[in-house]
Amino acid sequence: MKRLDNVPTHLSRTFTGTYRLTGRVVEFDNAKTPFLKLRLSDCLGDQIAMLNLSKTTVPERIGHLDFVTASGVKCLSGQFILDEFRRASRDEVTSMDTLQSLPRVYSPVPEVFDKLVATVQSLQSECLRAFLTRVLERKDRLEAFLNAPASVNYHHAYPGGLLEHSLNVANNAVAMLRLNEPAMSRLMQETCFVAGLLHDIGKTYTYDSKGKPNAAWKLCSHDAFTLEACAYGLAYLDKHASDLAIMLRHIWTCASPGARYGQKAAITLARYIRDADGQSAMADNQIRAFRTKSHWGFSRLGQNLFWRPEVSALQPQ
């Protein structure tokens, strides 16, 4: 690595920002000067930064996915040479946009990730945005949400499948609501989106950070973890929008087929999410069932039978 301790100011520009720390390793330049090579991540991507260890003391107890604030200069090479690196303050963290801190680098389906961030940042309800921050930007949950499949052997059974399925359900549920109840308020539409997005959030307890099934996957139903995964966010809504908190709890505990918690749906949003969930799963399974077979006729996937009519034969001559 070429020498980095002298960077001409005319070849650089100033830089500052707050990120998640997602990687670090010690490297030496040609003059044997030790540098800490850092990967700083957010919802837009990564920044690679170099910290001169002979000039700057690294703060203690900054770990993986912690919030950090860094500043310095950016060279023409694209690398940052830092003159400041520290743990981010509470004000710096709270000033970040909703989901801004989610590391895009961890998403196996970046195009779906981008749609998620754009949609969430377009929400008008500050309460719902604050709620999503408290649920999805938790250091102990975010990697599982981005990496996990929606199932092991069923629908969306691939890394990032949980994210893609969750966004499908959220968007399709809102589409049904708008079709059937066009006069429904914007706030109710946004609540429907949030409820659909997090309907499977309990699965972040049944997969590890790399998306592999853990002990809870065998021992517990993911539905049992849904309210637990949202507890911090629901506590916030209880104080600022209590009806939204009750609405979300009701949707998640009654929307499943058969009303697993024994409570029947008392609001149409619960039915939209239930139906959108089933449609998303069936659509993905039908695609898988015919992936290696004829484009028409019957096919099986596990115990499920799928049929595609020979459309050309049904068209008028």
TrEMBL record:
GO terms for molecular function: hydrolase activity. Pfam families: TraI_2. Keywords: Hydrolase. The keyword Hydrolase applies. One of its GO terms (biological process) is rRNA 3'-end processing. Residues 158-291 form the HD/PDEase domain. It comes from the Bacteria. Signal peptide: none annotated. InterPro entries: HD/PDEase_dom, HDIG_dom, Unchr_helicase_relaxase_TraI, YhaM_exoribonuc/phosphodiest. NCBIfam families: HDIG. This is TraI domain-containing protein.
